[in-house]
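pasting for the record
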Amino acid sequence: MIEKLLRYMQSSGKTYQDHYATLLHWYEKDEEELRKKTNERSKAPTIEEYMIGDHL
């Protein structure tokens, strides 16, 4: 992630006041997108769906 930030800053000319905060923001954004993709692919019912019978 640090190398990704450094490459981005060099190629775009952007600067950031707090590199740590930027890396955390990118990580959380990537994690959220991965969670959405995983949920879209998952066909297994959630425990809530199972308990109310929506899995059938």
